[in-house]
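Deliverable D2.4 — example input (structure tokens):
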């Protein structure tokens, strides 16, 4: 008499489909991470835990010498609000990325934040990751 069960479960697991998905995700993230660029001058940012980046953004930088830059273009403090509004546009969908040097006086960063709040603009404070 043959009493072997007919429904035996195969204990092996085929990992080929899982590795395909992992490689596709790896390729996707490698390609998209190389497309992210910020058009701003190089300043030494303070450190913080989070990181945020937005493609439709305007970078407003403040150097340690208290010079203001909008996307690598030097702007006087008197014309700062007018230039920010010109860069953001009428629809105000662009986000302001505030890039203040770690040694910049607090009042200079607050000037940019006040301009953004007064005009109801979205803003992000850029920091260096840990």
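Example output (designed residues):
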């Amino acid at each position: 008499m043959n009493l072997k069960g007919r429904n035996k479960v195969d204990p092996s697991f085929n990992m080929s489909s899982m590795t395909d998905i992992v490689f596709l995700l790896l390729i996707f993230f490698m390609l998209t991470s190389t497309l992210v660029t910020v058009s701003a001058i190089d300043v030494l940012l303070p450190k913080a835990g989070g990181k945020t980046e937005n493609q439709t953004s305007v970078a407003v930088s403040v150097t340690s010498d208290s010079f203001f830059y909008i996307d690598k273009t030097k702007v006087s403090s008197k014309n700062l609000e007018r230039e920010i509004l010109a860069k953001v546009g009428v629809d105000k969908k662009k986000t302001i990325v505030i890039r203040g040097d770690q040694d910049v006086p607090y009042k200079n960063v607050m000037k940019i934040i006040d301009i953004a709040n007064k005009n109801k603009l979205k803003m992000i404070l850029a920091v260096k990751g840990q």
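The domain at 57-125 is CATH 3.30.420.270 (Nucleotidyltransferase; domain 5).
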